[in-house]
Amino acid sequence: MSDLSPVLIPTRPSSQWPVGARLRFLPDAELNPRHDQLRGKPVLVLGEMQLIGPSEGRYSWRQQILSLSTCRVGWARPDQLGLPLDGEDAETY
């Protein structure tokens, strides 16, 4: 008989960012060190919340985003994103 262990799936966050919202990565967001250059940079939300994983043995709820500074599509947790600062335009990036 195989060894089956329970899979821990996190609770879905109670809210998500609307598709099409222009946001930014928060300066104090918990990011993988290889993505530190994205702190404070603008993103466009492309999709609704999805359960992603397992990555490193864990699942997480994320939304698909487009980084406007690198033109790359990726995934972000809603708590990593925030509203742009007043006066920020896409042209500043």
Write a compact overview of the structure shown.
With 93 residues, the chain is mostly beta strands. The protein has strands at residues 22-25, 42-45, 50-55, 58-67, 72-76, 81-82.
Percent helix range: under 10%
Strand content: 25-35%
Total E-strand runs:
6
CA-based gyration radius: 15 Å
**What is the mean pLDDT?**
88
Using brief descriptors, characterize the structure shown.
mainly beta; single chain; six-stranded antiparallel β-sheet; 33% strand; 93 residues
Provide a descriptive summary of the structure in words.
- This protein has strands at 22-25, 42-45, 50-55, 58-67, 72-76, 81-82.
- It is an all-beta fold and 93 residues long.
- The chain has no helices and 6 strands.
- The protein starts with 21 loop residues before the first strand and ends in an 11-residue tail after the last strand.
Topology:
Layout: E1 22-25, E2 42-45, E3 50-55, E4 58-67, E5 72-76, E6 81-82
